[in-house]
């Protein structure tokens, strides 16, 4: 039952961990989606960086009265709506203003209406705002031409320095003396005619723009923008695979941690079970100083204290029992002297009664000493000296010892094959003899002993045709000095220790003792279950 409860406890832990992993899975997918969205926005900002720097630089170089006509001309040329606004007139958040102050470009996705780009003009408290519905070839050609015109206004030696004022971000913008590689003759001819050539790279999902700038002599400068890479979101299958792998690693790590804790708790449970079975020398191996290690140390301290208290109790019982033998012996000697000094029949009858009482007291002391010895062996952890026992021969010896004392009963050993058991011979015979003696005290006419060899255990059954044991008393009957108040009463004799000794002996062997109703005789059936290892019954190998 304890094992089932422990399993259910850890099952609940595993279920909660599984739910936590599912929650982590959902949060991880959300996190991946958010990271992908941030990457998308960053890509848009990088694409808009060069065009917005170029427009802002061109606008800053013009006088204020020329801003409006120039913006109108660029609106027609680039198919977009540029405007200059005061920073205070635009509703911006703290982080948006901070990004503008750091010369970053703000990109706002307006859904079906396209995008809105915003950039602070150099040295002014105004910003350039551009609204565009989409990105088209007209805009790419127009921006390339605009950049070429702006660079062509400078002498050839100053163009590279001017280019660095607008270049930056993830889009490469270069100015070289050699024609671009990879272009065919038709494209080179168009470049020589002053046209913008757009080259597509299908395998890379990117494009580049080229333009020839007039040089100071016969040679031209070659402007190259790109390649401009298309945004590549992380594939959903890859996202899912990464999340599953991470969750698998996390789940395996958590499982190993919890499994280690469960194994240590199982060892603690096993130690508690062994102590409950009477193995008071059992201790838990303390492997660390964590909470389970401290629990193990506390458990060991408790076990040592219980063992010490029980050892003191057993020592006291044994000492008192030994001390009782001296006055009992003196009383017996005195009774014998008085018996030798008188011939009065009445006095001799009384003396004989006293002698019977002394015999009972002697028997009680023997039972107490046996019970204390068994308890002392368990408390001190003494290993039993086990050997192979022929169980049917042992049962015959018990019958031979008790049959003369109960002549009115038929004590029988049921037929069956010979059975061998690995046990301590003296104590196992004592347990069986106590059960048979108990049955003889309560049987009316018949006692039957059965010995059976079952897989991994040997079973002894002692049945009688007496009144039986009530179901409510079947656990209490194995306690020391337990006596029943029904037909199995004090008039039947006994001291209340015989069945306790049986239970101690079986617990020491790792077995059990129980009682139920006899199906054949109608009285009580006491059962001993003695566990056996499969290799314990093999005959010894010759030397």
Describe the structure.
The protein has 543 residues and is of the alpha+beta class. 51% of the residues lie in helices and 17% in strands. The protein has twelve helices and 15 strands. The strands form four sheets. It has a five-stranded mixed sheet. A hairpin with a 2-residue loop joins strand 12 (446-454) and strand 13 (457-464). Helix 7 (236-276) runs parallel beside helix 8 and helix 11 (425-442) packs antiparallel against helix 12. The longest helix is centred in the first third of the chain and has 60 residues, at 2-61. The chain is rod-shaped. The chain starts with a helix and ends in a 12-residue tail after the last strand. Residues 1-6, 486-491 and 535-543 have low confidence and may be disordered.
- Going across the biggest sheet, name each strand in turn: 10-12-13-15-14
* Largest pleated sheet: 5 strands, mixed
Could you give the distance between the termini?
Answer: 45 Å
How many extended strands? 15
Q: Calculate the mean pLDDT score and round it.
A: 78
Number of helices: 12
Low-pLDDT stretches: 1-6, 486-491, 535-543
Beta-strand content estimate: 15-25%
SS content category: alpha+beta
Helix content: 40-55%
